[in-house]
Amino acid sequence: MAPKHDEIRLASDKRTEFGKGAARKLRRADKVPAVLYGHGEAPTHLALPFHDTFQALKNPNALLTIAVEGEKDQLALAKDVQRDPIKPIIEHVDLVIVKKGEKVVVEVPVHVEGEAAPETVVTVDAQTLEIEADPMDLPDNLVVSVEDAEVGTMIHASDVTMPSGATLVSDPDTLVVNVTQQISAEALEAELAEAEEEAGVEHDEPETEAAEAPAAEGGEESSDEE
Q1: What predicted TM-score, i.e. pTM, was given to this entire model?
Q2: Beta-carbon neighbour count of residue 58 at 10 Å?
Q3: pLDDT interval class at 225 (50, 70, 90)
């Protein structure tokens, strides 16, 4: 039966070999080593299809249905994803089992939209916020609008609208977005000069053109010899 919710189904194989060598062998076969655990169940070591897993984990809070061979399907969230620092490779995934009707705590990215007032700078101080929500209805992001926001506007976690059924877990006083005055080029140059002066930075004077050589004794030289 097809799932009734918008999760992604990943077929998996059980792993019986472990260690770096076994992991490399799996990755060469386009598989991702993973472990599934939670709710008091013994950890299950799995191999997931690389392409499907890579696509699924583009959303860090994607609800996954893990099809375990010989066992019932399990709903899970990616708890920890280890990626290669250079290559687009997932090296390992920790999956935590979730149950319908039980809320989970996850970090959700903050998405800022809108245009603040002219000559302002919008700084996002908190890139993510922790919320508690039903795993069947996790948002992709939390939207914060800065439309026409004036200098001095400060948006805290408590000001961010939570999706239906979700509650804020992060400190309500967490500064999420700060709108400040855009500094002019003249003011920036003045600040830089003041900082250099305090640091004792000295600039060399521009070199003057070398003085012309004195004329030879006895007057001007003739260009032609007689």
Answers
A1: 0.69
A2: 7
A3: very low
